[in-house]
Write a structure and sequence with these properties.
Elements (H helix, E strand, L loop, with lengths): L7 H29 L6 H27 L13
Length: 82
């Protein structure tokens, strides 16, 4: 293998890192939205929140898939699960 060449495992981990960064960015955008939103949201505010939430959920799913592909899979964080 040439110096600096990435293995398949490296590529999988890099994809997982990119997905985690994308999810972090999506949640940061939602937090910034909440910092500026007024007490009584109008329909445009609700629509913007829906779009932000959809992006968060999408990036969370992409992150989970990428991490699972990298071998980092946690079946459940639910402490009440049997």
């Amino acid at each position: 293998m040439a110096d600096g060449a990435r293995t398949d495992d490296d590529q999988v981990v890099m994809r997982a890192a990119r997905a985690a960064h994308a999810h972090a960015d999506a949640t940061t955008q939602t937090a910034r939205f909440l910092d500026r939103v007024g007490a009584v949201p109008d329909p445009a505010v609700i629509a913007e929140y829906a779009a932000l939430l959809a992006r968060e959920e999408s990036t969370r799913d992409e992150r989970a898939d990428a991490l699972r592909d990298a071998g980092l899979d946690v079946p459940s964080l639910d402490t009440d699960a049997a």
